Amino acid sequence: MTENVPTPAPLLSVKDLHTHFPVGGGLLTKLRGQQQIVHALDGVSVDIAPRQTLAIIGESGSGKSTMGRSILRLEEPTGGSVSFRGRDITSLSREELRRERQHMQMVFQNPYSSVNKRNRLVDIIAEPLRVHGVGDASSRRQRSVELLELVGLNRDFLHRYPHEVSGGQLQRVGIARALATNPEFLVADEPTASLDVSVRAQVMNLLTDLKSELGLTMMFISHDLAVVSYIADQIAVMYLGRIVEIGSKQQLESAPQHPYTKALFAAAPKPDPRLRKKESAPLGEVPNAITRPTGCFYSPRCPLAEAKCFTDYPRLETKAAGQQVACHLVAPSPLVGATQLPITPV
Amino acid sequence: MTNPSTAATAVETDEVLRVTDLRTTYQFRGLPVPAVKRFSLSVKPGEIVGLVGESGSGKSTALKSILGMLRPPAQVEAEEIILTGRDLRSLSEEEMRKVRGGEMAMIFQDPINSFNPSWTIGSQFRRVLSLHRPDLERKEYDEEILRLLKGVGIDGRGKLNSYPFQFSQGQLQRIMIAVACASKELKVLLADEPTTSLDVTIEAQVLELLRTLRVERNLSMVLVTHDLSVVAEMCDKVVVMYAGQVVEVADVFNLFESPQHPYTQQLLQAIPGFPHDGERLYAMRGAVPGLATEIQGCWFADRCDSKLGSICDTTPPPLYPVTATGGLAACHRVPDPAIAGGEGKNS
Which of B240, B281, B284, B303 to mutate to test binding with chain A, by most A CBs within 10 Å of its CB? Predict the structure, then answer.
């Protein structure tokens, strides 16, 4: 279907990204080489085309936030590469990285904890400009007013402090700050999770408007499927530091393949009492990221798991055009199967 | 009655909990701030009542007021707070302590912060048993704890000496529910956003657990949440709050099919559907007015899409009856069916 349309070069290309954190233990455990490792991000590869929004979903501990932070090098990845606008940013020096960050910004989950409470909103919004040495004080102020208006707040807000505005307004300020340097790429980490329903809709609309007006490319991290469904072009499902399924929004919503994706979608409560769940809730919890299960990480919770699932981790394979799934039990669709069959040598 | 679970208990008719005209006022810099201005609630045995509203609408304050958890300078006034026939306002502090965790218990949003981090789960659990289970000998405590934990799906063997941080959020929420259910006298469980901090899969498990408890022990619940999907999933009846006042009371099916108050209508409109059809989200304008604001008429008038006119700015709407089964809505549109909002009003 998409054969004839040339795919644009991805704006962001993540290859086999690993971020591991050492945990616990004193000097002795380190000397003995018994240091425990959390595999927060364990070999993730994704491409995001310009102007596209990739949503990352998964439970807490699945590595969603680590992924966003590692891409911006807020966490230092332990392996793999991130190329942004064709340039590998994992090897950049601090100074080069700082310059590159103008083009890639982040919106955080909790607006109150991601701003300096002693700064006025004008200083909060203008801070990236100051850091990157853009303009002088008066032009930065002018830009702050523009940005406030862009996110739907008027200039009266300039001199307020964070505690004088509501959570929804402060999240708009967080978005304005992220947009200050005219970035091409935005990582939004659960930007609406701490907001009320009514305000959440305002912020979601703002983000989609900005996406089309400014041509933003986004990575949108969320556990709220309805919100993801509203904003995403592509969806990646993460589980214990790896992607278990990735595809277009339509594919995942209409035909989710991985048992975990299906469980996630089924578990989300629906706003209609006539659709009350009759089947039982999905099993168990996300296993420990230190001592991960052997075989497929989802196998202990998977209702369909077979012998093979407990021994071999399934590779992420293309099962339909543009839809990749890491599951032994998902057969490639016949359409793709004809060309793709040889990739399963077992 | 539309719901089979309430039909079974309707024969007993009596309410387990009835609160009438509750008002709670906080003090801020010497000035009174009314957090709950108009609140009444009635809960039948085995019924799950949802309490919905945005942050700052007074949901949690109302629960804490009922349970007598607020201390001066906060002031709680009410015409009555009746739990199984006794007015809680007439009880001494000592008697109230027996009620809390006895006949009525509360579970909170954030399980990790609801336990003392430096005590083991076992020791915190034993303390609750020593207060609320006079029927048990001290040496029987651990056995009972294991039994209660098993009831919430946790194998507690070997874990009683573990500290809260050694459990996951989902496990801690289950443990908190087990602690809340320790008393044999328990009639009403107040749940303040019990699944808000949990993942969808764990949320589904905890909601299922609460439903099971309701059936097994005929527990009544008041479920505070801002998530209308959780309400749809769990509740029999819903109380909608806005700026410290009850604005609508309805059977859950009526609420979703024909919401009467414009606030409820607009709230339901703002929920993004899944999968999303690509339409722009409806967004409510403005924000909840500050608690200390002086408002003459309807508190929702500024954000209302179906405002009638000057009456909304000058006269506060009382709670009008909407259905014969106890549906109420505080909106000037209600008394005149010709202009009433929402279609297909069933009475």
Answer: B281
* Amino acid, single-letter form, for residue A303: P
- Facing residue for B199 by CB, picked from A168, A169, A223: A223
Task: Please spell the DSSP secondary structure of A227-255, one letter per residue.
Answer: HHHHH-SEEEEEETTEEEEEEEHHHHHH-
CA dist., res. A72 & res. A84, Å (int) = 10
pLDDT for residue B344: 40
Per DSSP, chain A holds a count of helices (H) and strands (E) of 11, 12
Confidence band for A216, pLDDT divided at 50, 70 and 90: very high
In chain B, the residue whose alpha carbon lies closest to the alpha carbon of A251 is B275
Coil, strand, or helix at residue B125? helix
Give the CATH H-level superfamily of domain B4-103+186-293. Answer: P-loop containing nucleotide triphosphate hydrolases (3.40.50.300)
Query: Contacts of residue B272 in chain A, CB cutoff 8 Å?
Result: 201, 204, 226-227, 229-230
Q: What would the pLDDT profile of A112-159 be if each residue is shown by its tens digit?
A: 888 888 999 999 999 999 988 888 888 999 999 988 888 888 888 888
Q: pLDDT at position B247, please? A: 94
Edge-first strand order for the sheet with A12-23 is: A36-48, A12-23, A79-84, A87-88
**Residue-level pLDDT at B347:** 36
CA distance B251 to chain A (A): 11
pLDDT tens string B112-151: 888 999 999 999 999 999 988 888 888 888 988 998 888 8
Question: For residues B192 and B106, is the Cβ–Cβ distance under 8 A?
Answer: yes
Give the HSE-up count for residue B233: Cα atoms under 13 Å, Cβ half-sphere.
28
* Closest CB to A229 among B227, B232, B275: B275
pLDDT confidence of residue A5: 55
| Domains of chain A, CATH where assigned | 12-254 (3.40.50.300)
Q: Which residues of B277-309 are buried (b: 16+ CB within 10 A; e: fewer)?
A: eeeebbbbeebbbebeeeeebbbbbebbeebbe
**Beta carbons of B232 and A229 less than 8 Å apart:** no
Sign of CA dihedral B198, B201, B203, B205: negative
Eight-state DSSP code of residue A292: P
Rounded CA-CA distance B179/B182 in Å is 5
Neighbours of A236 (CB within 10 A): 24
Indicate the domain borders of chain B.
4-103+186-293, 118-182
d(CA B194, CA B60): 12
pLDDT class of B336 with cuts at 50, 70, 90: low
SS3 sequence of B256-294: HHCCCCHHHHHHHHCCCCCCCCCCCCCCCCCCCCCCCCC
- The residue among B343, B335, B262 whose CA lies nearest residue B303 is B262
- Report the C-alpha gap between B111 and B152 in whole angstroms: 15
Q: B281 Cβ partners below 8 Å, 6+ apart? A: A201, A204, A205, A230, B270, B272
What average pLDDT score do residues A260-271 get? 87
Cα→Cα distances A108→A84, B140, B302, Å = 21, 49, 30
CB contact under 8 A, B271 and A271: yes
